[in-house]
């Protein structure tokens, strides 16, 4: 039993020493630096020059240059001339290829909804000149051709 007591006391002593012994050496912190004297403080940057740089390099544009046309809210708010008739929007809904190709077009003047047309058909002054696999060519109207 004697041997067991010695081992228990030695183990307790080792635990006590390891609990209070430092694992690493700690150096005291260096003296705190004082702020520089007020005579060496940099003066504030002029804000107007920052604004000039921001405007000259327009950070919101990919080319980093100002727009070639200045924004004019009065021009954007100007009403559209009433003498101009609105041009209808043509939409090519589908093409059926074959021996006699046909196309389904919506927005032809004088028609309601989509209309099935073939090469040579004339609808309100619009003549279909060609129906290809991916587009339709027309003639006799001032709006650009309709294509899909």
**Fraction of residues in helix:** 10-25%
Number of helices: 3
**Which stretches are poorly predicted, pLDDT < 50 over at least 5 residues?**
143-148
Distance between the termini: 100 Å
Nearest-angstrom radius of gyration? 43 Å
Let me know the number of strands.
6
Main sheet specs: 3 strands, antiparallel
Tell me the β content.
15-25%
- What overall form do the CA principal axes indicate? elongated
**Widest beta sheet: strand line-up:** 1-2-3
> Which class of secondary structure composition applies to the elements?
alpha+beta
Could you name the key traits of this structure?
single chain; alpha+beta; 3-stranded antiparallel sheet; 3 helices; 23% helix; disordered C terminus
Please explain how this structure is put together:
It is a single chain. By secondary structure, this protein is an alpha+beta fold. The protein has a domain of 49 residues. It has three helices and six strands, in the order H-H-H-E-E-E-E-E-E. The strands form two sheets. The protein has a three-stranded antiparallel β-sheet, with no helix packed on it. Strand 5 and strand 6 form a beta hairpin. The protein is elongated. The C terminus is likely disordered.
Please outline what is shown here.
The protein is α+β, with helices and mostly antiparallel strands.
Topology:
Elements: H1 2-20, H2 47-56, H3 73-77, E1 91-96, E2 102-106, E3 114-118, E4 122-123, E5 126-131, E6 136-139
Antiparallel strand pairs: 1-2, 2-3, 4-5, 5-6
């Amino acid at each position: 039993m004697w041997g067991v007591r010695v081992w228990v006391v030695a183990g307790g002593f080792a635990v006590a020493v390891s609990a209070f012994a430092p694992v690493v050496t700690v150096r005291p912190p260096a003296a705190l630096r004082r702020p520089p004297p007020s005579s060496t403080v940099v003066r504030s940057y002029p804000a107007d020059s920052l604004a000039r740089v921001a405007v000259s390099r327009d950070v919101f544009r990919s080319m980093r240059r100002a727009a070639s046309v200045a924004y004019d809210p009065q021009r954007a708010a100007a009403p559209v001339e009433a003498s101009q008739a609105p041009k209808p929007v043509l939409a090519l809904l589908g093409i059926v290829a074959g021996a006699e190709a046909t196309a389904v077009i919506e927005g032809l003047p004088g028609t309601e909804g989509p209309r099935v047309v073939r090469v040579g058909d004339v609808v309100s002054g619009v003549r279909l000149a060609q129906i290809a696999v991916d587009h339709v060519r027309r003639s006799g109207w001032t709006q650009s051709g309709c294509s899909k």
